[in-house]
């Protein structure tokens, strides 16, 4: 995407993308371009109505999603590190092949601190696909062959993010995974999350206690770190003037995380009050691992939609 020693230049691969994604419709004036964001090589997607998104090659991480009114919808910590020495705190980190500490691998797996390659770029369309495959480093820790693809599509009123995984090896493997979305809120204690009532969860903030959500909506007054099982119905985030619809496909679970004051203070890449302006609502495979036979593929996606106030 960059000329040697020169400025990044936009790429034009719309036909290639159309072959990859037959349902793709090129939206007038939508575009993708290569940019440098906080020193990292990244891609900016723009839609005709003025919405935009930024995706870093490092971690294939969405770092910004602005709706047409200019409002940033994702939280990105002021103290996030962009020197590639650590995962970036905020946006939408990709967790694979391990969610959190559910196994022997580094927390949240192997891909959030890795450079991904551009797989398909559609100049003229606000969609982009990045790819990361097993390499010598991943195989030292996890001896399986895989190809992971992250597809990001900016819509006029929303953002679709999909993670696809192929088992390109000769043995079956099992994985857990997440799109660890950090949603921006103005004040966490004024936030309501609707759609989880009646679901069972495991609460890592409470000794992995199991519970059932009996409240009509989730409100926040302290640390929360729950995996909701079988959370496949759409959710609605109400946070003052911010209203988001959150839906998933392929991911069976939803993780809700906020570290609150004490947990936040323990994170070097967060300002002390940072927890007040974020809520992670994550699309996850976390309750039970997903098994993938040789040659088989899996795909999960999270769709964020701005709702009218
Ligand atoms: O998804 C929730 C979680 O697993 C929490 O337990 C919390 O630790 C969070 O992820 C952030 O993890 P990180 O490694 O990015 O600090």
Description:
The chain has helices at residues 14-20, 136-141, 260-265, and strands at 31-37, 40-46, 52-56, 61-66, 94-95, 117-121, 127-133, 146-154, 158-167, 173-179, 182-184, 191-194, 200-203, 209-212, 217-219, 224-228, 235-239, 242-249, 253-258, 278-292, 297-306. It is mainly β and 309 residues long. It has a nine-stranded antiparallel beta sheet. Strands 5, 10, 11, 13, 14, 16, 19 and 20 form an eight-stranded antiparallel beta sheet that branches. The chain has a four-stranded antiparallel beta sheet with strand order 1-2-3-4, with no helix packed on it. A hairpin with a 5-residue loop joins strand 2 and strand 3 (52-56). It is globular. Residues 1-28 have low confidence and may be disordered. Bound molecules: 6-O-phosphono-beta-D-tagatofuranose. Residues 87, 100, 107-108, 180, 204, 225, 255, 257, 280, 282 line the site of 6-O-phosphono-beta-D-tagatofuranose. The site of 6-O-phosphono-beta-D-tagatofuranose (TA6) has 11 residues, from strand 19 and strand 20.
